[in-house]
Amino acid sequence: MKDEHLYIVAYDIRDDRRWRRIYKILKGCGEWLQLSVFQCSLGGMALLRLEERLREEMNLSEDHLVILDLGPSENIRPKVRSIGKPFEAVGKGPIIV
Fold first, then answer.
1. How many Cα atoms sit within 13 Å of 39 on the Cβ side?
2. Three-class secondary structure of residue 3 per DSSP
3. Reduced DSSP (H G I as helix, E B as strand, rest coil) percent helix, strand, coil of the chain, to 5
4. Of 18, 45, 80, 87, which has the fewest beta carbons less than 10 angstroms from its beta carbon?
């Protein structure tokens, strides 16, 4: 979709139970990169829905999460240095949440 952007989502969740819930939410809308790091290709409304779901699960006084917008998914060619497994940007296409 044209309005989708590629996002990197990284989080530091203090409680293991909340961490697993955040992991499951993000796994439903993105691709897992590393422990507590996902990449997601999302449109504007999908991003807002994701943020709302994450806020509901997080303890906002203890946990921290950042969402980095890398730009439109359609044209982005992220420059990534990867040691170990090769990095592949998340594919374009519908993701059912």
1. 16
2. coil
3. 25, 30, 45
4. 45
What does the DSSP 8-state code read for residue 83?
S
Whole-model pTM? 0.82
Q: What is the pLDDT of residue 91?
A: 62
CA distance readout (Å), 13 to 24, 68, 75, 92: 13, 17, 32, 28
d(CA 10, CA 65): 6
Cα separation, 50 vs 28, whole angstroms: 10
Give the pLDDT mean for 48-67.
Answer: 96
Q: Which amino acid is at 19?
A: W
Assigned token pair, 83: 């040691």
Q: Are strands 31-34 and 37-42 parallel, antiparallel or unpaired?
A: antiparallel
